[in-house]
Amino acid sequence: MKAVISSEWLKLRSVTSTYHTLGTATLTVLLGVAWTFYVSGLADERGSLRAAAPEQGFLPLIQISLAVLGVLTITSEYATGSIRTSLTAIPKRGTLLLAKAGIVGLTTFIAANTILLVTYSTSRLIANGHELGFNDTSFTDDLVTLLASGLSVTALALVGLGLGTALRSTAGAIVSVVALLFVLPGVVNYLPPPWNTRVATLLLPNLVPQMAGQRLSSRLGDGFLPPWAAVAILGAYPLIALAIGHYQLSRRDA
């Protein structure tokens, strides 16, 4: 297993798409700096301002960028045909997928939390002395939300890996991830109450605040899952996607 993990780590860091996706996710830091300077100026003009924290406002950029990393980890091998070599070297397909999941999960968790922490730190330094809503909380209070955000990125990257394994199509898997992250929350608006609120609490974009103990308040209503339940549901997303991917990988030829 150690050799398989080493091989997958070598694959991940030897392709340019890895650095492209990580670089895109890192743009969050620059966007966060620009946003904080902008709202700080507005706050000085108005006396105070309620503004979204940049590490939360730009979280979808990190999520979709690293989800693409998860997708490309497997679909790039199908595109080039190198998946046949991988399966010849590692006949146990479950072992191969598990190794990929471990590498993708660890890489995205470290990358996401580093980017979020840097974005958080730089924005708070810039906002220091300005009357901004996101500058009123302590680091201890925000740490749970930062960790929840990092876990959501990791979960979505593993969902991308599972969908990429199942669909064998980069475009198809990315569209599926985009639908999960952006389209489904909009579709839920049209469900009759109280089902709109009940379903909304289960959707991946809404799990982060609930993992931090916050209520889901919107025009859909007021919903809430206990933090442990939100964490469990978040974990179910990649488990289901990887299970589907493993099933398809096991029953089909490369």
What does this structure look like?
This protein has 254 residues and is mainly alpha-helical. The chain has one domain (2-186). Helix content is 77%, strand content 2%. It has helices at 2-14, 16-46, 54-57, 59-80, 83-89, 93-127, 139-167, 170-188, 195-200, 207-211, 227-251, and strands at 216-218, 221-223. A hairpin with a 2-residue loop joins strand 1 (216-218) and strand 2. The protein is globular, with a radius of gyration of 20 Å.
Short characterization:
The chain is mainly α. The chain is built from 11 helices and 2 strands. The protein is globular.
Helix-strand blueprint:
Layout: H1 2-14, H2 16-46, H3 54-57, H4 59-80, H5 83-89, H6 93-127, H7 139-167, H8 170-188, H9 195-200, H10 207-211, E1 216-218, E2 221-223, H11 227-251
Antiparallel strand pairs: 1-2
User: Strand portion, in percent?
Assistant: under 5%
Give the overall pLDDT as a whole number.
89
Q: Count helical runs.
A: 11
Q: What series of H and E elements makes up the topology?
A: HHHHHHHHHHEEH
Tell me, briefly, the overall form: globular
Kindly, what is the distance between the CA atoms of the first and last residues, rounded to a whole number of angstroms? 21 Å
Estimated radius of gyration: 20 Å
Structural class: mainly alpha
Most strands sheet: 2 strands, antiparallel
The helicity comes to over 70%
How many domains would you count in the coordinates?
1
Strand order of the largest sheet: 1-2
Low-confidence stretches: none
- How many E-type strands? 2
